[in-house]
Each structure stands twice: as structure tokens, then as C-alpha cells.
What does this fold into?
Amino acid sequence: MGLREYAAALADREVRDALGRFSDGTNVSEGFKRDLAACIRLKIVEGYPDGTLKPRREMTRAEAATVVYRSCLIRADARPAEFSPDGDGLEDATQFDITTLRNRNASSWNLFITDPGGRVVNSMGSALHGNSPPTPVPWDGKCAYGLPLPDGTYYYRAKVTDREEQVFWSALKPVAIARKTLRGSVSPHVLEPGDIATVTAYTTGGPIEVLSATPWSGFSPMAPSGQKWRGDFRVPANARDGEYSVSLRALFRGTSREAAAGFRVEQVLSIGGILRPNPCRAGCTVAIEAWSSPGVVRVTASCPELDVGETGLERADGGDWTGSFEVPADTNPGRYVVTLTGRSLTKSVSAALDLLVDPGPLDAVTFSLTG
It folds into this structure.
């Protein structure tokens, strides 16, 4: 009758309790105790009116027919136990194989699908399919109202009622909805040329492999970490400012998914400097020492108030910039602003340096008297 799996799962206490209902239960042969205890628990075997089992006695034809009539057990199995209802034609549904003993003793049956909290989300049964369950019974991952259920683990259990109104349940088993999905992100999102970034792919549905490709390289495997996949890449030093994306590809059995993870390349320019001497006198030469971020390719200095136009600076061996300009001899004492401008290939940045022109010592002043 296919009860070996059920019988083998009975605890020793359950076997003793079932056989202990009868005065001669201890006389059952050791090799049959679990089998007979299973039949007693499922009301297939009820014993004789005098409270005995008579385990050593051969059954009559009528007794055997009674046992068969009472046998109406049900079993349910999902194939596959994890499926992906995402419309790609691969494992879009699961099939429940529901079997009962083939003695036409079932009067009704039901299959219930519940969420982890035990709430019934869908069910099938005799009202639509007749007294005997068809094989297989398909399920597309939707609730009773026809709406797709979210990914996760659900549970199913079948019930059958026999002609004597006895109810039997199958074992509670899990079935998982795991759609094949892929998405990704790049961290940090804003990068400078030369930076190293991490790309992370997030998947469901159990991909075999996930690959990534940057605008500057081909596809390469990513390292798995649970449902996440990670990889690093470097932004080339000559990358221009703009929006870019990493291409992602997840390989599943028989299909694939593709996605993109965007990021931005943006040079963060900076520039600073110092003037020597400062303060200075009119007519002297002022030296400029400037430093800048790596993206700066040209630096100039200007001071319209001193009639100093845009003066180019030279890059020194250490990466800094140097230059100089003359302060006109007729410059009045005061504070002047020298503007440093650094330029990349696409944008510029500026810094203001204060220059103090000092009147000089008193012996440099010429006095004149007028009448």
C-alpha cells in the first residue's frame, strides 16, 4: 500500500502506543511492528471486536477486502520543487504529482498551498477536477485571485477523504518560487579617472555564473557570495567625464538575464598656490608656485589690476607648477588678487591668491617742497 515511508518515520513511542491498544499487540513479529502500527494509526486495521489483532492468524478474503477498502492514502510531490514563473518558457510552473491508493475509495481531495505563516494562498480540489486527483496538477505561482505571488518558500499539503469520511493528509513539503532576476550597482557611484570601483550583481533563481564588462574591457567572471556577485575595475586615467555603465550577464540553465549598472566619471579638479615674496614692492618679480589635482593639464595666472594678462606656468618634475610676473613700477601700494586657473580637457577650476604691494621703507620716498 506504499506505507513503508510513513511507517519508517514513526517514533518508537508511536509504534508502542498503536500496538498497545490490543491485548496481543506484543505478539506481532518484530519485522512487521512498524507496518502494522502505521495501518492502525491510519484506521486501515481496526482489530477484532474482542480487542485483539490475532497477528499469527491468516486473513480471510473478506478481511483482506475490508483492509483494501479502508486504504485511501494520499501523497503529493512538486516537480520541480523550485520554479521560476517569469515567462521565459523554462520552469514557469511546477507540477504536483498527487497519488492515492487505487481502490476507488476516495470521495474528495484537496491540495492546499500556504505561505510560511500558514495562510492558504491557493488551493485545488474535487470541485474542479473530480473525486480523483489528476496527475499532474499544475501551479503557475499565482494566488487564488490570479495574482503573481512574490518570490519565497511556500508549503503544500494534500488531503483526501474516503467513503467513510476518514480524512488523510500528505506530508507538509516546501516549494519555492525563485524568478530569474539580475540587477547591479557600482560603488562609489561617482568616480575619477584612475579610481578603482566595485560592481555588485544581485541575483535570484540560482544562476550558474555572472559576468561583467566595462566600457574599457570585455566580459569576465564575477566572484559569487551567496545571492551576490562581486568584481572590481579601474577607470582609465584618460577617461573623459560622463555617464557610463557596466554590462552584467547572468547565465542560468538554458537561458540568461542581462542588466546594466550605471556610474559617472567626473574629475574633481583642485588648485592652490603661493606667491613669493609676499608682501612685495612695486617693480619686483613675483614667483608663483602652484599645485593641482592630476586631471589639471594647464595652469595660468592673471591679475588685471596689475595689468598682468594670462601667464602660463610650467610643470615641474614633481608635478607642481612654477612661473613668475613683474609688478609694474608705478603700482600703488595695496592688496591685489592674483587668479590661478587650472584646466583639464573638459573643465576648469580657479583659486584666488592675495598679493600685498608694500610702499617700502621711508628712505625710498622722495619729498619735494613747493612754494
Q: What stands out?
A: The domain at 78-177 is CATH 2.60.40.4070 (Immunoglobulin-like). The chain has a mean pLDDT of 88. The radius of gyration is 43 Å. The longest strand covers residues 152-162.
